[in-house]
Amino acid sequence: xxxxxxxxxxxxxxxxxxxxxxxxxxxxxxxxxxxxxxxxxxxxxxxxxxxxxxxxxxxxxxxxxxxxxxxxxxxxxxxxxxxxxxxxxxxxxxxxxxxxxxxxxxxxxxxxxxxxxxxxxxxxxxxxxxxxxxxxxxxxxxxxxxxxxxxxxxxxxxxxxxxxxxxxxxxxxxxxxxxxxxxxxxxxxxxxxxxxxxxxxxxxxxxxxxxxxxxxxxxxxxxxxxxxxxxxxxxxxxxxxxxxxxxxxxxxxxxxxxxxxxxxxxxxxxxxxxxxxxxxxxxxxxxxxxxxxxxxxxxxxxxxxxxxxxxxxxxxxxxxxxxxxxxxxxxxxxxx
Length: 336
Ligand code: NDP
Ligand code: MG
Ligand code: MG
Hints:
17 helices, oxidoreductase, KARI, NADP, alpha/beta, globular, binds magnesium ion, single chain, 336 residues, ketol-acid reductoisomerase activity, amino-acid biosynthesis
């Protein structure tokens, strides 16, 4: 069993008198910067001239500087830019300005684990990775709760990197829910696997396959949408609250019997074998290489896929059905 750490195990005092530069003000950036500030930590947000996020961060009451300036003054530098931009921003703006004893912090291990960023040996390098989207990291903090997180130490130059990581985890509220120690390798590989095989890739293809099967058999698109996508939320809420057992307790016995009979025919031996292959492509760096090269080439495959997906019949039906659900968040652009 992994050892869990909670608020009582973390010393927020370690961050007193320190300046934290949060680079980026997107999904994670806004949550970390605001939560830390409200926990009494001195924070500056680092962006670039012309950044859309600059005004947002300022109107949220935060100090904003260019990344170069923010780094030059910081004792901790948290890298919350998109993973694919981190290596070049690190080279041009972070490394030349990084104080000799400043800690370099990540919310995901990709760039360190796959050696896209190689920090000097004099600096602490650690990770605090919330296990949830940034908007939840912010909302739960405001409600007195938190999103659990993983932490890991890659370089311990100060001899205190672990304690700093745990203090940071408390500052963003994660220690209220529990933090687990890991390594950059474990976090990176499990995170990539989870999003590819289960959370994003697995779920979207499962939903589409279910929808397409029903529609091609002549059922109404709206019913197929409700059944295969909309209702997923109810199921996921039950899973989140009480695991597989709570979901199975709550659904009808007919649904539970169908679950036992059919689940393994959908996620079958072939699927499991493919999952192992996906994992080994993550472990041996093949996925990382493809994604790094894809970005260097200007994302031709990514952009084509994104466009193709907007043409799926579920998109139109979904838009129409959701427009009648006034309680849903703004549907334009899904902005913060
Ligand atoms: P986002 O894409 O949401 O954040 C982008 C932010 O970076 C924006 O504020 C953007 O500004 C800014 N930015 C872009 N380029 C630069 C630059 N050159 N210099 C300074 N700022 C820049 O990122 P995420 O929050 O999704 O991801 C951040 C990190 O957190 C990643 O390592 C990710 O793996 C990790 N993570 C993310 C999770 C999530 O919930 N999304 C969950 C757990 C970890 P502008 O828009 O103005 O260009
Ligand atoms: Mg993840
Ligand atoms: Mg991820």
